[in-house]
Automatic annotation (TrEMBL):
GO terms for cellular component: RNA polymerase III complex. This is RPC5 polymerase. It comes from Alectura lathami. Residues 466-493 form a coiled coil. Residues 146-169 are annotated as: Disordered. It comes from the Eukaryota. The keyword Coiled coil applies.
């Protein structure tokens, strides 16, 4: 009450609602111009409008006599747009840029709250606005200049190349028949951005007449801004109760289904976003951003938003990964949709993306090949999953894009526990769908779960694998003893006299045994991976029992055969590297861990049909002896065997050969594409 006494009412003004220009009055917002030049001085040459779109184009004259006008620049622009010739189609007939076009855009989608007011003789007259349009300069003349420039270049090139041609070239025409359009496809096409643009372009322009500010017609139209009668019958809208008046000032938020934006549906301003319910705001933000910390989400929702309500809504559309929120897969891939790359249904995509999200709950790094091998999805879909929530690092893999949010984990332990339970349910589903092993699904232990996840390098992973092999050595030895006991029991019926056994004496090789340093820790006291006990007849002179040796030979032969069918030509050094990688991928206790020497590997290469190519490398080469031994698959069983043998014979005479020499040797039977295939 004290404040009201300090601020007394000094005047009461009657307010009237004018209806004469209802749904006809627009507000134009012009660009800022110099203070010395008002729009009263500007000459409007033409105006046109598209009523349905509320789009206006105005053409205004430029004062070329103004001292601020650069005449040379205006002449240059006119020359670029129209060229040297002037005709009816010229944009600037005076060979000078003497006019400018302004095109409108809608300043606000909802103008029902705005009105134009006129004050006269103690009365305020209001007329509701039908639209607010911002006029901005249009630079379509630059596009016209570029188009003419391209036409001139095309004409010059076409004239030079076609002077001697008497007839036009015959062009092949491809005829395609369109399929019948389904209802779902038609709805997508109608809602597409291109279709909306096409419909807008089809609307015809309505040309208008412009009347200046001091024109008599303008003066006449201006009178319609005043209410034509002061009777109460025409102003019943202004006679409202306080509650109705308050409802008119602050109407409830209603979704405007008719006023759809021209831009794509994914484009939404923050002002429009905050008119939506809180759940819809969070869903739209998470769908666009994909990954977001909780603090950033609260800042986007604006001050005064209840964090408890936000936490309740965010759990419906996102999952917690390393303290950050990642949008759920079914939000990105709704039901009855499919992959744009492979056409895989949304259900399969959701499972694959959930697997990637789950992997990031275990570690900060994910390997793309591992995800593709488990999910059996195409590389493009897997790449989309990873780009949603991670960043590619060279020679490391994909790293989760945000740091571990320790603050959120400490402040909301109940949310973290609830999300952990949800991930356990997802883990159980993934185990059934992808048939994953239990040890692969158990989460890695993290220190106190609240600290930052450790970054494990490749070298550390190798050391961890070595330590794991040493730990499992006891179990492997038990399995070995069990196998020996079984072999002894099988041979008990036919007792063999050890002195009468003929043992094949292998010549002592000068070659070093194959480098298997990754398994040195488990080879102490064993020969070729097996114990050489004094009283054992199973392992003499490094030989394996017959059954075990056959299994080792079969496994080794399968590896060598499949490797050469993929790569055809390999050095011994590269073959050993691939074999070590193959060993690293095998489970503990595999038969190939029994020890494979270089000689065994080379003999097996020759047994599978490969030949050693004696390439005459230069004496001063710095390559190692293993890199100088080259083996090639002599017969692969395809149509290029004969040509591949010719190519290998060429390289047996010289280690460096020009392409034209190879082309001359192979071009008699093969075309260029086939020669490239053989060379590759």
């Amino acid at each position: 009450m004290a404040n009201e006494e300090d601020d007394p009412i000094i005047q009461e003004i009657d307010v009237f609602l004018a209806r004469s220009l209802l749904e006809k009055l627009y507000l134009f917002q012009y660009p800022i111009r110099p203070a010395s030049m008002t729009y009263d001085d500007v000459t409007h040459l033409s105006a046109k409008i598209k009523p349905k779109q509320q789009k206006v184009e105005l053409e205004m004259a430029i004062d070329t006599l103004n001292p601020n006008y650069c005449r040379s620049k205006g002449e240059q622009i006119a020359l670029n747009v129209d060229g040297t010739c002037t005709d009816e189609t010229s944009t600037y007939s005076s060979k000078l840029m003497d006019k400018q076009t302004f095109c409108s855009t809608q300043a606000a989608s909802n103008v029902s709250r705005y009105a134009a007011a006129v004050y006269r003789k103690g009365e305020l007259h209001l007329t509701p606005l039908h639209g607010i349009l911002q006029l901005r300069p249009s630079f379509t003349y630059l596009d016209k200049a570029d188009a003419k420039h391209r036409e001139r270049e095309a004409a010059n090139e076409g004239g030079d190349s076609s002077q001697d041609e008497a007839e036009d070239d015959v062009k092949q025409i491809t005829v395609r028949f369109s399929r019948p359009e389904t209802e779902q496809a038609r709805q997508r096409r109608v809602q597409s951005y291109e279709f909306l643009q096409k419909r807008q372009a089809e609307e015809h322009w309505v040309h208008l007449h412009y009347y200046g500010l001091k024109d008599s017609r303008s003066e006449h139209e201006r009178q319609y801004l005043f209410s034509q009668g002061h009777g109460l019958a025409e102003n019943t809208e202004l006679i409202k109760s306080p509650s109705e008046y308050l409802m008119m000032l602050m109407p409830p938020s209603v979704e405007e289904e008719n006023d759809k934006p021209v831009a794509p549906s994914s484009v939404l301003s923050m002002a429009q976003l905050r008119t939506l319910p809180l759940a819809d705001q969070i869903k739209i933000l998470m769908k666009n951003v994909k990954v977001m910390p909780f603090a950033n989400l609260m800042s986007l929702l604006g001050s005064g938003t209840d964090s408890t309500a936000v936490l309740r809504c965010i759990q419906q559309v996102a999952m917690l990964v390393q303290g950050n929120w990642v949008v759920k897969s079914d939000v990105l891939y709704p039901k009855d949709t499919s992959s744009p790359h492979s056409g895989v249904p949304a259900e399969v995509l959701c499972r694959g993306r959930d697997f990637v999200m789950w992997k990031f709950t275990q570690d900060r790094w994910v390997v793309r090949k591992e995800v593709a091998a488990v999910t059996k999805l195409c590389p493009e879909d897997v790449k989309d999953f990873l780009e949603h929530m991670s960043v590619a690092r060279i020679n490391k893999g994909w790293e989760f894009m945000l740091p571990y949010d320790e603050d959120f984990v400490k402040k909301h332990p109940d949310i973290v526990q609830r999300q952990r339970m949800l991930w356990m349910g997802i883990q159980a589903k993934l185990e059934k769908v992808y048939n994953l092993l239990k040890e692969h699904l158990t989460p890695k232990k993290q220190e106190a779960q609240s600290g930052h996840p450790l970054l494990v390098s490749g070298e550390q992973r190798v050391n961890m694998a070595k330590a794991k092999v040493k730990q499992n050595y006891g179990q492997l030895e038990k399995e070995l003893q069990k196998q020996k006991a079984e072999l002894k029991s099988n041979d008990a019926s036919s007792k063999m006299d050890v002195p009468n056994i003929r043992i094949k004496e292998e010549p002592v090789s000068d070659e070093e045994p194959m480098d298997t340093s990754a398994y040195e820790g488990m080879n102490n006291g064993i020969v070729n991976g097996l114990h050489a006990e004094e009283d054992s007849t199973d392992s003499l002179n490094g030989h394996l029992p017959a059954g075990c040796a056959d299994r080792v030979a079969q496994e080794l032969k399968a590896f060598v055969s499949s490797t050469f069918k993929k790569q055809f030509v390999l050095t011994l050094s590269e073959l050993k590297r691939l074999f070590n990688l193959h060993l690293a991928s095998l489970p503990p206790g595999h038969t190939l861990f029994s020890g494979i020497s270089d000689k065994m590997l080379q003999d097996m290469v020759l047994d599978v049909g490969c030949k050693q190519i004696l390439v005459p490398f230069p004496p001063q080469t710095a390559a190692s002896p293993d890199e100088l031994k080259v083996y090639a698959l002599w017969e692969a069983g395809d149509t290029y065997d004969q040509h591949r043998q010719v190519l290998l014979e060429i390289f047996s005479k010289n280690y460096r050969v020009r392409r034209n020499v190879i082309q001359n040797q192979l071009s008699q039977d093969l075309n260029k594409q086939e020669v490239d295939r053989v060379l590759k």
